[in-house]
Amino acid sequence: MASTKITITQPDDWHLHLRDEEALSTTVPHSAKHFGRAIVMPNLDPPIVSAQAALRYRERIIAKIPPNSNFQPLMTLYLTDNMEPSEVSNVKESAHIMGIKYYPAGATTNSDSGVTGIAEVYTLIEKMALLGVPLLVHGEVTDPNVDIFDRERIFVETILSPLTERYPELKIILEHITTKDAVDFVKNQSKNIAATITIHHLLYNRNDMFFKGIKPHLYCLPVLKRDTHQRALIDAALSGNPKFFLGTDSAPHCQSEKESSCGCAGIYSSPAALELYSEFFDSHNKLDKLEGFASFFGADFYGLPRNDKQVTLEKMKWRMAKDFSFGDQLIIPIHAGQDLQWQITRA
Ligand code: DOR
Ligand code: ZN
Questions:
Q1: Share of the chain above pLDDT 90, in %
Q2: 45 catalytic, yes or no?
Q3: Which of 315, 321, 320 is nearest to 290 (CA)?
C-alpha cells in the first residue's frame, strides 16, 4: 500500500529569496517553519556585494526567526564586474557565506548590477576555482533577440559549457533549471556541477501559465517551458542522481506587482514548498526518493553536514491561505486557496 506517513531528515532549501526589512517578517517564518538551512539570494536593491554586507543582512534575517526554529540562513554574494578579489577570500573564510551568485546583467529581478560579460569576471572566477568557492548561476542569456524559451539552452551552450572547460575545478550550481538541455548537461559533467530544481518547474509547464487566461502568479524566470522539458526535470528529480537537489527559488513580490501591466517574475512557494515536493514525489510513487533530493544531496554538494533533526509528513488535506500580509501589501502564495495533500505533522 502507498505510504501515508513519512519521516525524513530535515530538508534544506538551496535557493531562496527573502528580500529585506518588513518583507522578512513574512518570508523568514515561512521558510524557518520546516527547512533547516537556506541559501539566501543576494539580489536586493542595492545588491549584497561584500561579505560585510552579507553578514549584516544575515543578522536582519536571524532577528525574524521564530524562537522554536533551528533555521540557519546561508549567505551569498552578488557577482559584479568590479568585485574586489579580496571578497572571494572573505567568502572562503566565512562559515556563513556559501558562494557567489552570477546574474547576467538584466536577466531577472534586481540584476542590473550583474555581470556584463563572462570574460569580465574571469579573474574572480579563477580565484573561486582555486579556493573552492562555489559559483551559483542564473543560466540565461540576455540578448533580447534570443527567444525567451531558448535562453537557458543557449546559455548552457555558449557560456556554461566553455566555463566548465576553462575551470574544471570550479564548483557550479546551475540554479532553477528548466530544460532537458540543462538536465543533460549537468548529468554529463563532472561531480563539480550540480543543479537545483524548483517545485513550480516540476508541477507546471507553459500551458499552465496560459490556461484559460494569463496567470501572472505562474510567471517566473527562467520562464516555464514546454511539457517535454518538464518531463526531463521530473525524471531528474525522481532519479536519485545526487547532482539534482531542492531549491525553491521562492521569490516574493506583492500582489500589485504581480497583477500588473508589467508583472514581476517570481513564485512565492515557501509557505507550502516541502508539502508540495512531498505531494509531487508521492504522485509519482517515488516518496522513497524525497529524502535524498530534499535533505542529503545539497548538503553533500556544499560539503556541509546533513541535518540531525527529522520531520514527519502525513497525507492529510489542508487548504493554503488565499494570501498573506506582506508589509502594507498582500502576497499571493503558490496554490492560493487550493487543497494540498500532505502536511508536516512533526518538525
Ligand atoms: O522568478 C524569479 N524571481 N526568478 C529569478 O531569477 C529571480 C526571482 C526574484 O528575485 O524575484
Ligand atoms: Zn532565484
A1: 99
A2: no
A3: 315
Q: Which of 31, 2, 1, 34 is nearest to 16 (CA)?
A: 31
Beta strands in the chain (DSSP E): 5-9, 13-16, 37-40, 72-78, 97-102, 135-137, 172-174, 193-197, 244-246, 310-319, 324-326, 329-331, 339-346
Helix, strand, coil: what percent of the chain each, to 5? 40, 20, 45
**Which ligand 1 atom is the nearest neighbour of the CA of 107?**
6
Report residues whose beta carbon is within 6 angstroms of any ligand 1 atom: 17, 43, 108-109, 138, 220-221, 249, 251, 265-266
Considering every ligand atom shown, identify the ligand nearest to the alpha carbon of residue 268 and give its number: 1
pLDDT at residue 289 is higher than 90: yes
Candidate list 249, 308, 328, 339, residue with the active-site label: 249
Contact 3, 312 (CB under 8 A): no
Q: How far apart are CA 70 and CA 295, in angstroms?
A: 15
Which pLDDT band holds residue 1 (cuts at 50, 70, 90)?
A: low
Report residue 287 as a C-alpha cell.
516518496
The protein residue with its alpha carbon nearest to ligand 1, atom 3, reads 266
- Contacts within 8 Å (CB) and 24+ apart, 140-143: 140/104, 140/107, 140/108, 140/221, 140/222, 141/104, 142/104, 142/105, 142/106, 142/107
Which atom number of ligand 1 is nearest to the Cα of residue 43?
A: 10
Give pTM, 2 decimals.
0.98
| Shortest-distance atom of ligand 1 to CA 175 | 6
Distance of CA 34 to the CA centre of its chain: 16
Q: What ligand has the least distance to the C-alpha of 111?
A: 1
All three cell numbers of 189, joined, read 559533467
